[in-house]
Write a structure and sequence with these properties.
alpha/beta; 23S rRNA (Uracil(1939)-C(5))-methyltransferase RlmD; OB fold (Dihydrolipoamide Acetyltransferase, E2P); binds S-adenosylmethionine; 6-stranded mixed beta sheet; 7-stranded mixed beta sheet; single chain; 31% helix; S-adenosyl-L-methionine; Rossmann fold; MeTrfase_TrmA_AS
Length: 396
């Protein structure tokens, strides 16, 4: 890899890879230094240190999920691409350095096919038109390709012809799903899905476990580094016979299922995982994932708000030996964290995509009787400023 840098013709305008001009080893060094600075009070308090960041051997083509908005262009054309940084102006992208190379051509061809079939693009300022976004997900291990076309309302004119045409151009597509989003919001996806071709979900595998992924469920976008991240979380959880694990903010159950599977592989008996997640579709996937991995006797998944679930677990006098938590960027809630302290598991494993909110949350756990024992940064998004971290805590 050396000290080479990568180039992208639209990097100045797109703003997605703000560190592209910095050689990758230097990006990693910068991230390491940032994490050491950010976690310095935590380390001073608990006498621990930040481990060396886990980088990628080849920091290209790592995004297995790609998306684009569509907008009307001149003479009936449909535009696609990335929003120029800080605006809603679209910059066309022929191929993207950090995406799986199969994804962008599909997104661009959706615009061409829609144009040909006179499916109008969504006009954001007026809330009119049909075609809003498309999202492509490529299975890391499975190679399955799921295309989700987001429409402004139930109608997708000439849907069958659209599907035929896009499949002719991309015969490897395994599913085409229409997602309906008629809200005037920046959120890409709506709640309703209509399967237009193939199965309604795709499959992929991580750490030897197979997962069903729906068009609206959360699934990490860099699967190669996800295996590193989950491996660190599983090691920090340190499964023991008879242990009960809470997998909070569990998405499609990926961490809990990988943990239970690894425990079984190592002959650690009677490990039980209870996952909690608020998105119904993700919980349904998690339950099917349990079956697909033959873990029905060790994993269960509950649809609930994590904080409400924590309060119920305490009222019910439940025992958990380990709490694994992986909240969204905003972090967790004080009530959830205080609930963890009252529940008093031996260990807490906090996986985070935003170390700034994580540091804020850690102080509640430290005040509540926990000591940070390890901090492991993982580079899930090379060429950007983002870092993910796995922090392990033990009860004092
Ligand atoms: C960063 S993702 C992690 C998902 C999963 N652990 C993984 O690695 O794929 C955070 C998850 O938390 C869920 N979530 C957000 N707020 C929640 C809440 N208040 N209660 C339960 N789940 C929540 C989101 O739907 C999302 O699936």
């Amino acid at each position: 890899m050396g000290f080479r840098t990568y180039t992208c013709p639209i990097s100045r305008r797109c703003g997605g890879c703000e560190w592209l001009a910095v050689p990758y080893p230097i990006q990693l060094r910068r991230k390491q230094e940032q994490m050491e600075e950010l976690f310095e009070p935590v380390c001073r308090h608990d006498g621990c240190s930040v481990s060396k960041i886990a980088g990628m051997d080849d920091p290209r083509g790592y995004r297995h999920k790609a998306a684009t908005p569509y907008a009307p262009g001149a003479k009936g054309r449909i535009r696609s691409g990335f929003y120029e940084s800080g605006s809603h102006r679209l910059v066309y992208c022929k191929s993207c350095l950090v995406e799986d190379r199969r994804a962008r051509p599909i997104l661009n061809d959706v615009a061409i096919v829609a144009q040909r079939l006179r499916i109008p693009a969504y006009q954001e300022d007026r809330g009119t038109g049909v075609l809003r976004h498309a999202v492509v997900r490529i299975g890391y291990a499975s190679g399955e390709e799921l295309l989700t076309v987001v429409t402004n309302g139930d109608a997708l004119p000439r849907a069958r012809r659209f599907v035929t045409a896009i499949r002719e151009l991309h015969p490897h597509l395994t599913s085409v799903v229409q997602n309906v989003n008629d809200r005037r919001t920046n959120a890409i996806l709506g709640r309703r899905n209509v399967t237009l071709f193939g199965p309604s979900h795709m499959h992929d595998s991580l750490l030897g476990c197979s997962f069903e992924i729906g068009p609206t469920s959360f699934y990490q976008t860099n699967p190669q580094q996800t295996e590193v991240l989950y491996g660190l979380a599983i090691r920090a959880a340190n499964a023991q016979p008879g242990m009960r694990v809470m997998d909070a903010y569990c998405g499609t159950g990926t961490i809990g299922i990988c943990l239970a599977s690894e425990a079984r592989r190592q002959g650690v008996r009677d490990v039980r995982v209870v996952g909690v997640e608020q998105v119904g579709n993700a919980v349904e996937c998690a339950r099917r994932n349990v079956g697909a991995n033959c873990l029905a006797d060790s994993c269960e998944f509950v649809r609930d708000d994590a904080t409400a679930f924590m309060a119920r677990a305490q009222r019910g006098g439940e025992r958990f030996d380990v709490v694994v938590m992986d909240p969204p960027r905003a972090g967790s809630t004080p009530e959830f964290l205080e609930g963890v302290c009252r529940l008093a598991p031996e260990r807490v494993v906090y996986v985070s995509c935003n170390p700034f909110t994580q540091v804020r949350d850690l102080s509640i756990l430290q005040d509540g009787g926990y000591r940070v024992t390890s901090i492991e940064p993982v580079d899930m998004f090379p060429h950007t400023k983002h870092v993910e971290t796995v922090v392990a805590l033990s009860r004092r």
